[in-house]
Amino acid sequence: MAASLHHPSIHDYRQSVPSWWAASAGPPVSAPRLEGEARVDVAIIGGGVTGLNAGLAIRDAGLSALVLDAAPIGWGASGRNGGFCCLGSSKLSWPAIIARFGLAEAQGFFRLQVAAIAHVRQRLADFAIDADAEPDGEAIIAHHPRAVADLAAEAELYARAFDTKCQLLPLSEMKPRGLFTAEARGALLVPHGFPLHPLKYVQGLALAAAAAGVALHGESPVVSWTREGRRHRLTTPTGSVLADRVAVATAGFTREDLHPGLAGRLLPVLSNIIVTRPLSAGERAEQHFDTLTMCADTRHLLHYFRLLPDGRMMFGARGGISAAPAAEDAMKARLERDLGRMFPVFAGAKTQYFWRGLTDLTFDLLPHFGTLDDDSAHFLLGFHGNGVAMGSLGGTLLGRRVAGLAVDLPVAMSRPLRRFPLPFLRQTYIRAAYAGFNLRDAVGR
Q1: pTM: predicted TM-score of the whole model, two decimal places
Q2: In this model, does residue 442 exceed pLDDT 90?
Q3: What does pLDDT average to over the chain?
Q4: 49-60 and 198-211 are packed helices; what angle lies between their axes, rounded to 10 degrees?
């Protein structure tokens, strides 16, 4: 089985990420290659927000912990996402979740998502991480007249099922609120969540984990995972770890050959971001978009965007099939066209940064907290493009579970992680899905 569904360049761990986050985060955290043999209570595969939060929880439980990351710390999804600490981690709608699991379980899943956002705020405070965190709230902007009714229904569901009051904005209020786009037909303001600098956050977590005694090793991909009795042997190109227990926190960059229990169970998909030069106050006023609120539109292949503290526009989108370098120019041009269509005043603003990365989808469109082989290896995967919050609190829960402590999880997250039917066709599935989504987005359905 191929190690990845995508072009191998997306897993070239030696290649730096040309992101605004990398350009503005400061020096990387020291995490030397693993050299020789190590012995540890818990080995964590993946050094992003999930793995680092797991490491902190494992140390809190009095066990030794070691992190192995295939790349430098923060290289993966945790350091290259859009910085949206918000509700999410599932692509299944709330009505579908309620229908499948019942209202009480859905409410528990919602409360966990709210708690996950608060967990990140608390991490920033506890470890004095200056991650450019901004005020609470998220704006979901209707891109089509038909989407306005959907937002109204969503506001009613939030109030009725989750005791959360959202605010519906008519189109007439969007310019005064600095939330206007040329496609906007209205918006829903959700009170939960906040934007941050994701790489500063993950680097701050790494420093905190190292200070707590977690051994951090970057540039140490796991090339072999075997058993020696009840223990696990994880081998890297320059060393190996013998661990009593293992936590897997590799998200969209999970390799197909990492463990047989994970093969065929994730669909890694591309997300893409551009960042412009700083926009002047006059440009922002003319466009009537002058808010630091994080925003997304109502497309299935959504755009997500926000102004950064220095006035740059960060503009991202799902989509794109090929991760090959030759496909990058076309994707960048598409993002620039979309930005110009939605924000005509910003159309001439030079793109100074463009990068791509992988997020992970599961067959049932839900995050999964599960076990491999026996009760000594656990994983948390499947964030569907929204892993900053759930990956953080979920990482803490993963660390507690691997440490042998009881963890109470919603049923929506704790069911078995299913293989995709005919998993070798996963790229075909996503091509077909994207074609359908583009048609639905065009008509607002």
Answers
A1: 0.96
A2: no
A3: 95
A4: 20
Q: Which of 202, 53, 210, 25 is closest to 119 using CA atoms? A: 53
Contact between residue 67 and residue 215 where contact means Cβ atoms under 8 Å apart? yes
Q: How confident is the model at residue 319 (pLDDT cuts 50, 70, 90)?
A: confident
- Burial zone of 1 (CB within 10 Å; 0-12 exposed, 13-18 middle, 19+ buried): exposed
Look at residues 140, 157, 238 and name the one whose alpha carbon lies nearest to residue 192.
140
For residue 41, what pLDDT is reported? Answer: 98
Angle value at C-alpha 22, between 19 and 24, nearest 5 degrees: 110
Confidence check: pLDDT of 1 > 60: no
**CA dihedral in degrees (255, 257, 258, 264; nearest 10)?**
70
Angle at 440 between CA 110 and CA 10, to 5 degrees: 70
Q: Alpha-carbon distance 421 to 154, whole Å? A: 32
Phi (first) and psi of residue 408, to 5 degrees: -100, 120
Cα dist from 72 to 10, 37, 38, 370, whole Å: 14, 20, 19, 26
